[in-house]
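Hi everyone,

Forwarding the result from last night's run.
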Amino acid sequence: MTIRTRNHIYLGLHIVCSLFFIFNLILVIARGSYLYARMPFGFDSGLAFYSFPAAVSGILFFPLLGALVSFAIFRGFEKTPSMEITYFLGVIVECVAESLRLMIPAFELGHSFSFLLVAVGRIVVAGRIACVLSIFFASAFSSNEEIQNQERNLTIIIASSCLCAFFYPVNTNVIEPFIMVQMGYRTFFIVIRFMVVAFSLVSMIQEAIASGSRAYLLKMAGVVIFTVGYSLLCNCTNWIIFGLSISFVSAGILIYLKVIHYLSNIWN
């Protein structure tokens, strides 16, 4: 994949994320009171400090994040060759996928079974898998020897995410407090995601040892901070979690991208 092609993709994703953010924002403004009044879930009484507006805000933040980060990458890495930035596309795609969760309360999908509800659930699952795989490939397959395999690796990420999501069980009878259909084998999914991130961190540690540069450790810190914030944002149920999640996500991405930009300029 050429730098020009990558830039065009990021520009396209910036437009898509912006449109999703505007659409969701209009939806919240136009139907906000209606959404809260018609909240079809009976889960708020069992959670401390639960806030439905905070859960909605958590979803609304995803396309905003995708729009801002994709534009920042388009401008900041316009002439910078970096395989990590190519694989970071999976994170931006996940921002688009997460924004679809707002359709559940907006169109009352939680009241009865519908294929749209199933589709939303599976798309979100695919996005979450793609996000984690993107982080792994960015750490394990970013050497110069892998330059020719970028398209193949991206195809693997997309195909694996879609295939796993298609067969992954979702329970449409239960809507979680953070506005998402209940995922089957949730503990297993969390463990697998944790292991993939752990393998990514091990790969970064090996890079740091081989290069003797502390910048790789800083990149690893960025990934850890982002992962914590991303996990909190996916499960946002109150304003405390919302504040912490956007702080961690923003800080993690900022650290990660600054280190990638620095390393790319050093080695290229």
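The beta strands are 170-175, 181-183.

Cheers,
N.
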